[in-house]
Write a structure and sequence with these properties.
With 279 residues, the protein is mainly beta. 12% of the residues lie in helices and 38% in strands. It has a five-stranded antiparallel β-sheet with strand order 3-2-1-4-5, with no helix packed on it.
Amino acid sequence: MFEIGKYITLKILRETDPGLYLGKDTESEEVVLLPNKYKPKTFKIGDEIRVFIYLDFEERPIATTLKPFLNLNEFGYLRCVDVTNHGAYMEWGLEKNLFVPFNEQARPMKVNNWYIIYLYLDEQTNRLAGSSKTNQFLQNNDLTIKVYDEIDILITHLTDAGANVIINGLHKGLIYLEDIFEDIRTGDFLKAFVKNIRDDNKIDVVIQKPGYKSIEPNAQYILDELKSSGGFIPLHDKSSPETIKDILGLSKKSFKKAIGKLYKDKQITIKEDGIFYYN
């Protein structure tokens, strides 16, 4: 049977009242239904179509052209839409919500909260399910990366030390607070780089490419704003987060880091009424 939880390109074999039957080729006995609501406006028998395979409400394999927020063996950031006596259900872009059993919840889930979720196939039931106990799907024993490699990361949570990340869907890493020069949030997917791999295989990650002098990106933005506003902005390190957000669209942490850099480089002066640009 077609693998559940993945995209596959199939041929349109025949049209029926319920929809289109798809298979790998015209001789294929293995077919799956693409319901009428998902069939393309124009098509002909023999056309190829890319679909996602999952189980419908009656636990039958079904094809869809809807795009789920994650595929089998991938991580995503999903919203909980229901909690029942059986477990929680996550919105993930398909008609049938993704089930997360109680024993796969890192902590009890609540409706409208967002969670990092791993999509797996339950071998006993052959059903797709989700887990927020993500560490069991990650390992740093056999690394597939090296220092300076470009990587894909998912921000899992922020701490006083920095941002914990999932690297290439395989490994755990950390962006230290002093290496964060922009606003990032749990659930962000970003390009990043391996800064260092420690003796115990813990991985240090940076968003800016290592090996070059890192220019604080928000510092240049603030300089541009200063120049366009006549060399003065009515903000300082004691301004409220709300005021900073309204004027510059930055968090207070990012703002303070940027003006600290500019002040150290003697490009601005900070006074009680705001910051001034040195012409």
